[in-house]
Amino acid sequence: MKSDEVADIVNVILLIQNDSGAKDHLYQTDKSNPAGTDTWDSGRVKQELSKYHTPYNNISDISVSADFGSGKTTTVHISGDAGSVDISGSDFKNYFNLRAPANINIVGPLYNVERN
Asked: Using 50, 70 and 90 to split pLDDT, how confident is the model at 116?
């Protein structure tokens, strides 16, 4: 995925953390919305998020922490043009799978994120 696509997923997570009512608008933009409402594109997500947090345009670094004993990714650390933020591994996986384009998915509870 491109940096701006990952930034969109991070922005979605930050938005939902601040405005749970936005959830029905945050599905994949390249598929029909199962909630039956309009799906917000990255521009609208940034606009809504800017009420609470500076939106990311680009992600410069991403890393994960994992608990290998339990077999789970525990934290995803994001750095980019809006600063740094830690997101729980389960939240990142859930919203990645909700928002990522095409059929890209994180399947299991233990995953890694690599930058190309």
From this structure: low
